[in-house]
Amino acid sequence: MPCLNLSTNVSLEGVDTSTILSEATSTVAKLIGKPEAYVMVVLKGSIPMAFGGTEQPTAHGELASIGGLNPDINKKLSAAIANILETKLSVPKSRFFLVFHDTKGSNFGWNGSTF
Questions:
Q1: Active-site residue numbers?
Q2: pTM higher than 0.90 for the full model?
Q3: What is the C-alpha to C-alpha distance for residues 86 and 105, in angstroms, rounded to an integer?
Q4: Nearest-angstrom CA–CA distance, 75 and 72
């Protein structure tokens, strides 16, 4: 049950967020090896953020998953999500952090219970 939370200081007004959500969902599903039906992506814009002392376009992400993460996959995910943010929101790859959390099923709530 991968969950990708993305926050950026870029305004999402007038942005085709459906395309971003769709691309991020399929990317996470493909690279982690989980069905798209179980991938959640949250995208928040216009969040006050600074990186390196400036408020130029920047973003932060966290990806939690029950398995499927490892150093090689994380590197591919980081590159792919950074590319989406750069092409769709003009956030430079150098101004994006992505934190990975590989968690146990008992730490993931769903459908009124846990895995």
A1: 2
A2: yes
A3: 32
A4: 5
